[in-house]
Amino acid sequence: MDEELDLYIEASEESMQSSIEHFKKEASRIRSGKASATMFNGLKVDYYGTLTPINQVANVKALDGRTLVITPWEKTMLPIIEQAIFQANMGVTPQNDGEIIRVVLPVLTEERRINLIKQVAVLVEKAKISIRNARRDVMNEIKQAVKDGFSEDAGKVKEGIVQDLTDKYSAKVDSLMKLKEEDIMTI
Fold it and tell me: For the domain that residue 174 is a member of, what is the CATH number?
């Protein structure tokens, strides 16, 4: 039974780690003060009737701190990519010159930066909820094992291990939040 609980704890840690990875992925899409190709990671374009991630139909790279250049592999994709960027309502205006699409990011105002931080805070809360859900699930398994005859003291030790994991991953989310907040507030 001890090994079985260790497997539950290991699975919950994997779930907590995936919450961190998901947070990182979602937070990378939130624009900070500088241009980053990851802004378009979630953008999908209509490629011959199939919604396809933009990085599978074009090369996206940062030209400088405020300019992104999108070079499609097929010239016919230029207007489709341009339309997808407009429809994504990302607060940017793509400029199509017939060869590439240039996206110049406007300077962030203080108000916009604060709104972006609020968006990150929502992602932080979702990540913490996911971590707590993983904790709850494994705690229920430990309590059930104690009811089924597992030592109560050993159950308390396992619960302590799970709580330590929860604290560790919650602190990791908080530190990632601080980094993203600093990135957004840097002018």
Answer: 1.10.132.20
